[in-house]
Predict the structure of 6-carboxy-5,6,7,8-tetrahydropterin synthase.
Amino acid sequence: MFHLSRRVEFSAAHVYHVPSWSEQQNKEVFGKCSNLHGHGHDYKLDVVVRGKLNPQSGIVVNTTDIKNTVNAMIEEELDGKFLNREHDHFQHHMPTTENMALYIWDRLNEQFDDCELQQIKLYENTELSAEKERHALPRLTRKYHFCASHRLHSPLLSDEENRQLFGKCNNPHGHGHNYVLDVTVQGTPDADTGMIIHLSELDSIVEREVLDRYDHHHLNLDVEDYKDLNPTSEVVAMVIYNLLKPHLPQLYRIGLWETDKNYFEYYGSGA
């Protein structure tokens, strides 16, 4: 089975506001997004389909057909619109990133010939995205940053084995990275807020449990978590998952960018 992806882009405006709530309550939950005049984004949408190879043509489906199907819906319903005011669905459902991904999935599902929709991934900006996959609840990914140093050295290996395996990363003085942390939660968006979790709550948990603990620290020397662990990025992703899970039951996945070239994911011990 092949998976094909096509990206389209569009712009839209919206506001997060629950009419039955007070202005203060809306501001506490939604922050600047509660501004009644609205705000907007340049969205990026990745549409992933799957299907079998056509032995005659050598393709699964013409990606131009995917583009045309997606663009027809986007241009008619979303692009250039103030969603709360101009779209029937979002007059009654909060146009959060996760609710928009759900709506786009519902509109595009069963619309493709010779293939089926596999995933929708909607990027609101570089820090926030939502995805919907077949047979799965929607997910929201929030991106965070921290700077830290570490040394890759396993006490279970000899000094020479460590040098051969980790090279420059075995430098006794350590080295550092600008880590990028992707925290992905999964669940059903709240009927009022349209959110899987309030972003302010998510930010507070991640800041308290991870960023305050790791940012501008030497993982081997300053962080108790790695007293008996070699802080490879695989291990760091696992430890962060285990730190967050007790406070974040919706947690689905941890993604960790050590560099632009090295990326690691951890889904929990049961995944």
About this structure: The radius of gyration is 22 Å. DSSP finds eight helices and ten strands in the chain.
